[in-house]
Amino acid sequence: MNRRKQQTSSNAPDQQQQKNADQGPVHFTIIRNFYLADVITLMNGVCGIMSVFSSMRYLLTNEIGDLYSAMGFMPFGLFFDFMDGRVARWRNNASLLGQELDSLADLISFGMAPAALAFAMGMRTYLDTIILTYFVCCGIARLARFNATVASQPKDTSGKIKYFEGTPIPTSLTLVAIIAYLVSRGQYLDALPLYEIAPTWDFHPWVLIYALSGTLMVSKTLRIPKP
């Protein structure tokens, strides 16, 4: 989510980073500059990466446990995404590095991981992959737009932005919940409904929920109140 991003515009330059710059090159500078919230953000990314690997492993093993593992890592990513903002506010040490880490971790956990899961469970036709690519690209655009416009977003007296433009990328977990339901009912791989447009052009209708989710993320007029 974007709880940490909104704080960056109002923070002074990181004094520790400036100190390191004045001292010249330091080994492992990026690690030395990590705050606790940044480490938690990285755990969000770890969950997303493990989810992608679990989806890839399912393609090799066809073990249903690997598919459920791919689903299970993503809610843990959401937990870490929620906690990093809480910790950053508690310790009052948000940074530009943390903002970028947050966006990249969200892209993996809530963009790439759900798309990889859809592919693994059977949405593998050429048209399916085009729609899944569209979904991931919408996630990229949504995060980039937020980072570019956060400073100009309307804020309340506490400095918190009032609303999101478009749905936040973690809402893609609703897609994961739908896929979990389909898998639990045995509707995956060959049992997944398929619609044929032409002899060589077909797609799985369920992939359209990814198209809808991506479109809602990049919507300019849809405004979601920030809790």
UniProtKB/TrEMBL annotation:
<dbReference type="InterPro" id="IPR043130">
    <property type="entry name" value="CDP-OH_PTrfase_TM_dom"/>
</dbReference>
<comment type="pathway">
    <text>Phospholipid metabolism; phosphatidylethanolamine biosynthesis; phosphatidylethanolamine from CDP-diacylglycerol: step 1/2.</text>
</comment>
<feature type="compositionally biased region" description="Polar residues">
    <location>
        <begin position="7"/>
        <end position="21"/>
    </location>
</feature>
<keyword id="KW-0812">Transmembrane</keyword>
<dbReference type="InterPro" id="IPR004533">
    <property type="entry name" value="CDP-diaglyc--ser_O-PTrfase"/>
</dbReference>
<keyword id="KW-0594">Phospholipid biosynthesis</keyword>
<dbReference type="GO" id="GO:0005789">
    <property type="term" value="C:endoplasmic reticulum membrane"/>
</dbReference>
<dbReference type="GO" id="GO:0006646">
    <property type="term" value="P:phosphatidylethanolamine biosynthetic process"/>
</dbReference>
<comment type="pathway">
    <text>Lipid metabolism.</text>
</comment>
<keyword id="KW-0443">Lipid metabolism</keyword>
<feature type="transmembrane region" description="Helical">
    <location>
        <begin position="163"/>
        <end position="183"/>
    </location>
</feature>
<dbReference type="Pfam" id="PF01066">
    <property type="entry name" value="CDP-OH_P_transf"/>
</dbReference>
<keyword id="KW-0256">Endoplasmic reticulum</keyword>
<dbReference type="InterPro" id="IPR000462">
    <property type="entry name" value="CDP-OH_P_trans"/>
</dbReference>
<dbReference type="InterPro" id="IPR048254">
    <property type="entry name" value="CDP_ALCOHOL_P_TRANSF_CS"/>
</dbReference>
<keyword id="KW-0472">Membrane</keyword>
<feature type="transmembrane region" description="Helical">
    <location>
        <begin position="34"/>
        <end position="55"/>
    </location>
</feature>
<dbReference type="InterPro" id="IPR050324">
    <property type="entry name" value="CDP-alcohol_PTase-I"/>
</dbReference>
<keyword id="KW-1208">Phospholipid metabolism</keyword>
<dbReference type="InterPro" id="IPR016271">
    <property type="entry name" value="CDP-diaglyc--ser_O-PTrfase_fun"/>
</dbReference>
<feature type="transmembrane region" description="Helical">
    <location>
        <begin position="129"/>
        <end position="151"/>
    </location>
</feature>
<keyword id="KW-0444">Lipid biosynthesis</keyword>
<feature type="region of interest" description="Disordered">
    <location>
        <begin position="1"/>
        <end position="22"/>
    </location>
</feature>
<feature type="transmembrane region" description="Helical">
    <location>
        <begin position="203"/>
        <end position="222"/>
    </location>
</feature>
<keyword id="KW-0808">Transferase</keyword>
<protein>
    <recommendedName>
        <fullName>CDP-diacylglycerol--serine O-phosphatidyltransferase</fullName>
        <ecNumber>2.7.8.8</ecNumber>
    </recommendedName>
</protein>
<comment type="similarity">
    <text>Belongs to the CDP-alcohol phosphatidyltransferase class-I family.</text>
</comment>
<dbReference type="GO" id="GO:0003882">
    <property type="term" value="F:CDP-diacylglycerol-serine O-phosphatidyltransferase activity"/>
</dbReference>
<dbReference type="GO" id="GO:0006659">
    <property type="term" value="P:phosphatidylserine biosynthetic process"/>
</dbReference>
<keyword id="KW-1133">Transmembrane helix</keyword>
